[in-house]
Write a structure and sequence with these properties.
8 helices, globular, mainly alpha, 199 residues, single chain, two-stranded antiparallel ribbon
Amino acid sequence: MNLTFSGREIRDLAVAWVALGVAFALFFAGGDPFALLERGLVSGLLVSLLTAGVGFLLHELGHKVVAVHYGQVAEFRADYSMLVLALLSAFLGFIFAAPGAVHHRGMLTERQHGLIALAGPAVNVVLALLFLPLVFVVPSGGFLAEVANLGVIINLFLAAFNMIPFGPLDGRKVFGWSKIVYVVFTVPTVTVTAFIFIF
């Protein structure tokens, strides 16, 4: 498998990574930049980049790896208008994160389209499971504890959000391919995510 990245793709990934990092840092500060400054701008941004940022990057890489596996020419392209929307929504205390997509060309079956789409949210679920043990082993109240907690929360959020069967989100392609796979993956993911956000 020949996994390569163009200069434009690397730039788009970097811009989207930073923009989402800032957006999620603001979101977890309640949309208040002064609260973010008070709790520590560098620390807040670093936590966000290591959780939301990494979750986003590996989500997109999951799409790309599976697309290339099926013989596609695949590259990530940032949607700059949606990145601005993510930042603006964070200021309002909620977040709408659809920073771009992996575009690919070539002939694909409906199943292959579905598996490419599913790869991104599946990566986020795996990342949440990898962060989870840290929640129980690192001392509470510190930097690593915040990374662990937000690593679980944000990756579950990214997985659940992207499985909405609407517009350009991954859930639409997965639902169109297999409603059984969609339900088996989405119901537990959304349930656990909702439980964490409520409690």
